[in-house]
Design brief:
single chain; 34% strand; disordered N terminus; alpha+beta
Length: 217
């Protein structure tokens, strides 16, 4: 009974925080009449290549196929200040080109605890990008990291709750292009096959995305 109470309390707490974030993002969106955060960015096409198969029950990491991507690099608050939390959104296309999935990354630390803390950088594309919050796969919780190798190349690495970072591939981007303000990513409903958000993360994130997208639609 105690464990059930703790579980229910955690779900209610994450839902309450999610609703609070949602209201905050909705107010920003209503004031700007556009995306509440990550309003300024650039886009680029690219290629996702996994050369070390991960065996996680996730085709994106396991099958070794090269996938075309559409990437959007952005500044989080877009206030014109020198430093900001940077974002990187990926749309990954399947080989036949008829379906896609979305993953979002932000600049964070890389350590066991610092991966939960966003970090500030001067330029879009700088810093280490992670999924910030863990995803769920067949083997448990999983983080994904994109680490810059050069201006338009990033190493792809995975990290579970019990392991260190393991580099499994590379993301290569073409020339950066003018932003597309109509582009929308769906990190809740369009995750890659084999990945899902833990319940507490869904409770935390879903209200903020739903409210802000409603305001700006």
């Amino acid at each position: 009974m105690l464990s059930r109470l703790i579980k229910n309390t955690g779900v209610l707490s994450s839902l309450a925080v999610g609703l609070a974030l949602g209201c905050g993002f909705a107010l920003l969106a209503a004031a700007k009449r556009k995306k509440p955060i990550h309003t300024k960015g650039v886009i680029a096409s690219g290629l996702w290549h996994i050369y070390h198969l991960a065996d996680r029950g996730v085709p994106l990491f396991d099958d070794g196929q090269k996938r075309k991507v559409l990437c959007r690099l952005s500044r989080s608050l877009s206030l014109g200040t020198r430093y900001d939390v940077m974002g990187l959104a990926l749309r990954l296309y399947e080989s036949q080109g008829t379906s896609h999935s979305d993953l979002l990354f932000v600049t964070t630390g890389e350590g066991r605890y610092s991966r939960y803390i966003p970090t500030l950088h001067r330029e879009m594309g700088d810093g280490t990008y992670t999924t910030l919050l863990p995803l769920q796969c067949r083997q448990g919780l999983l983080w994904t990291r994109l680490q810059p190798i050069s201006a338009r190349r990033y190493s792809i690495a995975l990290n579970s709750a019990r392991e260190g970072w393991e580099v499994i591939g590379e993301l290569q981007l073409a020339e950066l292009q003018t932003d597309d303000q109509s582009l929308r990513f769906d990190p809740i409903g369009a995750l890659p096959e084999g990945l899902s958000w833990p319940l507490w993360v869904r409770r935390l994130r879903a209200p903020s995305y739903s409210l802000s997208r409603t305001i700006t639609s």
